[in-house]
Amino acid sequence: xxxxxxxxxxxxxxxxxxxxxxxxxxxxxxxxxxxxxxxxxxxxxxxxxxxxxxxxxxxxxxxxxxxxxxxxxxxxxxxxxxxxxxxxxxxxxxxxxxxxxxxxxxxxxxxxxxxxxxxxxxxxxxxxxxxxxxxxxxxxxxxxxxxxxxxxxxxxxxxxxxxxxxxxxxxxxxxxxxxxxxxxxxxxxxxxxxxxxxxxxxxxxxxxxxxxxxxxxxxxxxxxxxxxxxxxxxxxxxxxxxxxxxxxxxxxxx
Length: 254
Known about the structure:
The model has no long low-confidence stretch (mean pLDDT 89). The protein has helices at residues 2-9, 14-55, 73-90, 92-118, 130-142, 146-173, 179-205, 213-221, 225-234, 236-246, and strands at 59-62, 65-70. It has one domain (2-246). A two-stranded antiparallel sheet has the order 1-2. It starts with a helix and ends in an 8-residue tail after the last helix. The protein has ten helices and two strands, in the order ααββαααααααα. With 254 residues, the chain is mainly α. 76% of the residues lie in helices and 4% in strands.
């Protein structure tokens, strides 16, 4: 059943399946907010950063872009929506806590799965044995390049804290109005910084063979920035809906 569904999705243009993915990810964000309130935002932020780091290992081709595009952009972008919602409804410290939760969770998953890979696998079994195949799959998913992993976490923390800082400053200037403008301005700026930091660290400073400046700018920095700006605009209704839902959502002390 699931295999047939994914086979059907593979016949569609990548833009359509990415849009469906965005709808599904947005739906779950609103469900988490409606039923779990602030706690749901924390959980969603953790899941998004962990799953995004796995999804980024897969790439696809878009009809309007020659270079392959790594996935994960949607989930990573929605973590900024989570930060904006938390800052808007609960303040800067609540949003910063979400960032540290995401950072710590990514570290924990990487550390524990690295130890899992280090446990001696089955020996004397055929290559088609489920445990052998599982070990190889885990190696692919959780044996990260130190350069990519370090660049990802550094860019995540810096850009998220910048987003929270800018959003709060803009909110102080316009306390009751212009939620859309402070969300777009803070997120759009933070996306650019995230792209610059991650791309420069991963593909130049930490890379064994650095890419050219032209490739760095046009492929890695600007290549996904337009898509992320589109994501920022598309996520605006989520921020408004989440703010409305949080009025009636379960309260907590986190």
